[in-house]
UniProtKB/TrEMBL annotation:
It comes from the Eukaryota. It comes from Eublepharis macularius. This is L-seryl-tRNA(Sec) kinase. The gene is PSTK. The keyword Transmembrane does not apply. Pfam families: KTI12. Keywords: ATP-binding, Kinase, Nucleotide-binding, Transferase. The lineage of its organism: Eukaryota, Metazoa, Chordata, Craniata, Vertebrata.
């Protein structure tokens, strides 16, 4: 083992989460920041663009089309691959910290793994090298012991998504920060239309309702966050970001010590679990209602109108539920979940009846 590998565990390593609406400019700014970190700081920077690393099946259907056809949405595919990428990143961090070769993880998908490795090799982090004993084993570039920053470029619209990255940083005592790109939905929709493969407009509009902006006043773990106007990334913005990244590297996360933070984390996990269960329950209700509508031979135009009305009802219901939770600041019981989902079930039935009566 080389001296560089033995010293790899002393490297300062940080994780930076980019979040915001689709087409807000995250990838453009992330690339500019990566270049700036390399030139101005001399740091090794790894840009992980989730859109490039995700397989095509993660984008194969929109939520709206799935609901219209009465099937379960494919949001779970996206969630699955997000977790896979985070596992690959943790696996790489383990190899970096322990100073060993980077081998394929025991679990994962071959296509995503190849994209992830290719991304690291293109950015000079991995190489095969003549001394690599097997094609599946990669060497981590340790020619210099400069700091390493990973920029995670995705929407991260739910706080719970970002919290997973925070947990990873805390587990390995890494630096952690968040950058939120504040961009109006109108600008995002305009930019989206100019893309080669634009997202459905309803997907972006629905995400506006779900987006949870970093809030350091309510959540202490989000204290290292910046909100940037994405319409123009100025030199002043760049300086603020560089200062934040430097500060978080100098003050890496530590294991939880205070009871107050334990309580906050427990509450955040409880909220994420409760809202996830509620989300799954109302989706099943919408799916069943659409199936019933199809069985009642509603016309395609009425099926489409009903799907749109039920989707709007679902978004408003979950938003109200989230606000109620934040105001009470306590975990809900299973009985509370059952009462709320029963109420939503009644609302969907009332909505559907209007269409059945007008056949």
């Amino acid at each position: 083992m080389t001296q560089e590998l033995e010293n790899a565990s002393t490297w300062p390593v940080g994780l930076c989460v980019f979040c915001g609406l689709p087409a807000a400019g995250k990838t453009t700014i992330a690339r500019a920041l990566s270049e700036s970190l390399r030139k101005q700081k001399g740091w090794l920077c790894v840009h992980l663009a989730y859109d490039d690393l995700m397989p095509l099946e993660a984008f194969s259907q929109s939520e709206t089309s799935v609901v219209q056809e009465g099937r379960q949405p494919l949001a779970s595919y996206w969630k699955l691959y997000r977790h896979v990428l985070l596992q690959y990143l943790e696996h790489f961090l383990q190899a970096l910290i322990e100073g060993c070769r980077y081998l394929p993880p025991p679990k994962g998908t071959e296509g995503t793994w190849k994209k992830f490795v290719c991304c690291l090799k293109e950015q000079g982090v991995l190489s095969l090298g003549p001394e690599a004993p097997a094609p599946c084993q990669h060497l981590i570039n340790t020619t210099t012991l400069q700091p390493v920053y990973f920029i995670l470029d995705d929407n991260f619209y739910y706080r719970s998504m970002r919290y997973e990255v925070y947990q990873l940083a805390r587990k390995y005592s890494l630096g952690f920060c968040e950058l939120f790109l504040d961009c109006s939905v109108e600008v995002c929709l305009q930019r989206n239309c100019q893309r080669t493969q634009p997202l459905p407009e309803e997907t972006i509009c629905a995400m506006v309702q779900k987006l949870e902006i970093p809030n350091s006043e309510k959540y202490a773990w989000e204290k290292n966050s910046l909100i940037l106007k994405s319409t123009k990334y100025t030199s002043e913005d760049n300086l603020r970001v560089l200062n934040l990244l430097s500060a978080t590297l100098e003050n890496p996360l530590k294991p939880l010590e205070e009871n107050t933070e334990h309580k906050e984390v427990d509450r955040a996990l409880c909220a994420a679990s409760f809202l996830h269960q509620a989300d799954q329950a109302v989706r099943r209700t919408v799916s069943q209602t659409m199936k019933n509508a199809k069985d009642n031979n509603l016309t395609p135009s009425k099926m489409k109108s009903l799907a749109q009305e039920l989707n709007k009802l679902k978004v408003e219901f979950l938003e109200d539920l989230k606000h109620q939770y934040n105001e009470k600041k306590q975990c809900y019981s299973e009985n509370t979940l059952a009462m709320n989902t029963s109420l939503f079930h009644q609302q969907t039935n009332d909505t559907a009846k209007k269409y059945f009566l007008c056949k």
